[in-house]
Amino acid sequence: MKKDTARFLPVFVIFMLLVVGFSGCVTKTTYMVEMRDGIHLATDVYLPKQKTPHGVILIRTPYNKDALQHVGTLWALMGWPTVIQDMRGRFASEGIDRAFRNAHTDGPDTLAWIASQPWCNGKIATYGGSALGICQFFMAGENPPNLACQFIMVATVSPHVS
Prior knowledge:
By secondary structure, the chain is an alpha/beta fold. It is 32% helix and 28% strand. The chain has helices spanning 3-22, 69-77, 103-115, 131-140, and strands spanning 27-34, 40-47, 54-61, 82-86, 120-129, 147-153. A hairpin with a 5-residue loop joins strand 1 and strand 2. It is globular, with a radius of gyration of 16 Å.
């Protein structure tokens, strides 16, 4: 282990213990959210103890939503309802995985579903890098009304550019 990495290990361990220790203050519910063509996408919702309407964080992933449960728990602990969804045809979601082919419709459909929930104030932020960022670009191209902001990292605007 590198010296710099070893220095941050105790902080990381304490951080993870806090997330696990306080995770009882967060509720997690899994939904199968219907898209406009009838396909259902597996969607985890992490809600803070206080359930007043609030802005929401959305992550759509091809990498398995279950791997991001600590992220959902952490943001919910900080008061942010967080939604993490398996993309079409991936892991617990229905459909055929066609690498972003339906991202321009599935993203806005998911935003509309979130906006209709009582814990959402109508403003939704998206988050993620790489493939999680690419699907955000496709979503933004549809100009959905509830998309308030996006945090996109290390993602190309077009996966077709070499």
